[in-house]
Write a sequence for this structure.
């Protein structure tokens, strides 16, 4: 079955024929079948979490029953008595050295080393998961110690340093957490990591034996500390930074882009076939340098002949980027940026798909949408569209009057459709065989303010004039827009209202096209004020400032000592 | 969900058992009704030689028990005036303290010598009071703004007291039905490695 039909506008802006893609019958995923790329804790992760839950139950039992608490104390005491029976001066010296990993200095060194590597390699996701896991372990260990209030081992001489209550052992919990977090944030998956697990087990065992010999902790304190210190980072990394999705690599790259190999690649291939009936042949990253909000992919698919589709992979990381971007703009501009951030990845991708279809029905030359593919429910989705094979960015294309007219007509159609693209820049205007295509409508808006619509016109004229000249573009624009509309566009478009790529190109070419256009206008309107202050913006700014101060305080506290 | 219900049921069931927790976290001079004051045990462990251990009889009205810090070598806790945050008395246990320049005062506790060093007594009552006994020393470090600082110190000092290590050892013994002791037996301590 062959799908796809030419998407042509009624006024001459023709999007060109979409590729002839072979479509198979989509397959519905039956209830109970896992999604293409499920989030997995894995068996060992479930075991460790189960053990952590058992530790919590154990704490409750110890805290509320005298008999159990005494029995545990006696058990610990007997174990420690056996260890103390082995004591001798030389062995004590050895054991003090063996316990070095559990000391504050060693933990701090491990802490700083891990932090430094993550910062140097800009592995922010791993860094935040690492910080979160460490903070959680520290808070739970300290909180539990204060609640349970178990004294240090009774009836034995304590030879090593200690601080505070004993259950759970905080040095063991923090050491286990530092080592496990380090393993999952620094060591690539595979044999090296497997070896690392054995090394961690050995390090924990040696430290535990040392602490038992020196009677710094009881056996149950150590076991509880280790379980807590392993289970929390393990679950955090497997759920929030799984290796399949965020692999450990030592090559620099944009952090917004997801790795599209291994399990994720398999999931994408299967999901395209099952959900859209498209038969993918090859998936390659495409145009990563120009995209920060998603991971763009070019997918070779079976067709007559084989052809390409364009996919944008959206994940929770992109959702967070979108939130931060919108928060930043709200702080910078105030109420002019009145859009809200998306709550879920599903809504983000649904919105872009909807906008594409809306623009398509408004006669705009946008890529034909093929649909949405679910990779991981609520976490990862793929937006599939037509691929403009052979198209070049308008900034690199030959621009004649026909191209100028098409660009201006795009803005006119946006206005008539009650839409604003909001990101008109050379990278988002592609030219293929003399036809202009509008791409990346992720920021587009339905029923925008007149200011936003005027900004679209201003940016379009600036982009078109980059490859021609202001007078020529102005002359063509007068055929579709009045002098007042153009004057309004240049009153609204200045500084930060221009996409950064456009500003950069203008700077590089040493052009002041804005001034040239303004000089051509018979009238000049006062500039539209960008800054808008409101109570919401003031409160938001104050909250963010407080949050930053709080975050710095926590970071400083964590950096000063992990214990 | 089912696991959560099981845990909840377990907690409810265990709540019916004899509760053995001193919830205040305060080293009370009197033992809790059904158990042992673990905070006081921790303080005792911080200075294994101390024959007396500082404790709180009752927190004076308008004061609060502050943060306890205990580790090998010493323990420290505070009493803080809840209304006037600048008023505080820090109680610190060490194995020894420097009482040079301090005035020796009479002590009501047998086996405990009392010293006091006042560094300011005008607009504020600032200084230290030392209780020296076998194997240890407890310092009350005070900074009490106001003209009646001396009186305030007496009120706070009256709410503090001492528990002998022997008494606490007996409590540990009784609490564990004779299976545990607070300190190692002298023979075990003598045969241990270097301390």
């Amino acid at each position: 079955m062959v799908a796809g039909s030419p998407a042509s506008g009624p006024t001459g802006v023709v999007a060109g024929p979409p590729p002839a893609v072979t479509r198979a019958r989509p397959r519905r995923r039956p209830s109970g079948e896992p999604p293409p790329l499920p989030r997995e804790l894995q068996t060992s992760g479930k075991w460790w979490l189960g053990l952590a839950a058992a530790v919590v139950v154990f704490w409750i039992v110890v805290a509320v029953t005298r008999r159990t608490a005494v029995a545990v104390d006696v058990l610990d005491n007997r174990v420690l008595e056996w260890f103390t029976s082995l004591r001798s001066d030389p062995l004590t010296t050895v054991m003090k050295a063996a316990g070095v990993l559990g000391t504050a200095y060693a933990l701090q060194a491990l802490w700083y080393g891990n932090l430094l590597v993550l910062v140097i390699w800009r592995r922010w996701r791993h860094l935040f998961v690492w910080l979160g896991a460490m903070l959680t372990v520290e808070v739970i260990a300290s909180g539990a110690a204060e609640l349970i209030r178990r004294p240090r081992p009774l009836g034995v001489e304590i030879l090593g340093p200690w601080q505070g209550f004993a259950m759970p052992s905080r040095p063991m919990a923090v050491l286990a957490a530092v080592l496990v977090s380090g393993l999952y944030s620094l060591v690539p998956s595979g044999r090296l990591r497997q070896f690392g697990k054995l090394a961690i087990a050995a390090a924990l065992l040696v430290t535990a034996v040392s602490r038992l010999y020196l009677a710094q902790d009881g056996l149950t304190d150590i076991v509880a500390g280790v379980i807590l210190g392993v289970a929390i980072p393990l679950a955090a990394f497997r759920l929030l930074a799984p290796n399949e999705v965020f692999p450990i690599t030592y090559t620099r790259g944009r952090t917004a882009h997801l790795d599209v190999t291994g399990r994720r690649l398999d999931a994408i291939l299967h999901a395209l076939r099952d959900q859209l009936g498209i038969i993918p042949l090859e998936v390659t990253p495409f145009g990563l340098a120009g995209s920060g909000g998603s991971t763009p992919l070019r997918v070779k698919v079976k067709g007559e002949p084989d052809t390409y589709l364009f996919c944008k992979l959206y994940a929770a990381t992109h959702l967070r980027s979108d939130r931060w971007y919108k928060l930043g703009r709200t702080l910078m501009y105030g109420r002019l940026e009145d859009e809200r951030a998306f709550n879920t990845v599903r809504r983000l991708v649904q919105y872009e798909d909807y906008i594409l279809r809306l623009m398509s029905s408004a006669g705009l030359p946008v890529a034909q949408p093929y649909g949405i593919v679910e990779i991981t429910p609520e976490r990862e989705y793929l937006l599939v569209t037509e691929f403009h094979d052979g198209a070049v960015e308008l900034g690199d294309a030959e621009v004649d009057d026909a191209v100028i007219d098409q660009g201006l007509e795009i803005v006119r159609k946006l206005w008539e459709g009650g839409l604003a693209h909001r990101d008109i820049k050379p990278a988002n205007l592609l030219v293929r065989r003399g036809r202009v295509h509008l791409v990346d409508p992720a920021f587009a808006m339905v029923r925008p303010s007149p200011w936003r619509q005027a900004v679209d016109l201003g940016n379009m004229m600036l982009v078109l004039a980059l490859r021609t000249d202001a007078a020529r573009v102005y002359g063509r624009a007068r055929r579709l827009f009045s002098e007042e509309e153009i004057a309004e566009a240049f009153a609204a478009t200045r500084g930060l209202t221009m996409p950064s790529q456009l500003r950069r190109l203008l700077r590089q070419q040493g052009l002041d096209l804005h001034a040239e256009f303004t000089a051509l206008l018979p009238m000049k309107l006062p500039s539209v004020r960008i800054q808008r202050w409101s109570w919401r913006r003031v409160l938001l700014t104050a909250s963010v400032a407080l949050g930053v101060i709080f975050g710095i305080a926590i970071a400083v506290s964590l950096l000063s000592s992990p214990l | 969900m089912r696991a959560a219900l099981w845990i909840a049921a377990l907690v409810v069931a265990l709540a019916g058992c004899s509760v053995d927790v001193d919830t205040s976290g305060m080293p009370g001079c009197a033992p809790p009704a059904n158990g042992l004051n673990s905070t006081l045990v921790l303080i005792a462990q911080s200075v294994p030689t101390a024959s007396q251990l500082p404790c709180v009889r009752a927190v004076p009205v308008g004061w609060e028990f502050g943060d306890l810090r205990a580790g090998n070598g010493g323990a420290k806790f505070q009493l803080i005036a809840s209304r006037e945050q600048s008023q505080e008395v820090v109680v610190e246990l060490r194995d020894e303290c420097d009482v040079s320049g301090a005035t020796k005062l009479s002590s009501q506790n047998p086996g405990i010598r009392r010293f006091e060093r006042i560094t300011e007594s005008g607009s504020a009552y600032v200084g230290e009071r030392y209780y020296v006994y076998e194997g240890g020393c407890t310092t009350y470090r005070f900074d009490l703004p106001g003209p009646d600082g001396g009186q305030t110190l007496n009120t706070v000092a009256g709410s503090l007291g001492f528990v002998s290590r022997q008494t606490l050892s007996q409590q540990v013994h009784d609490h564990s039905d004779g299976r545990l002791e607070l300190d190692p037996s002298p023979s075990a301590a003598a045969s241990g490695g270097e301390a």
Summary: The beta strands of chain B are 52-56, 63-65, 69-71, 74-81, 88-94, 103-105, 113-120, 124-133, 136-145, 160-164.
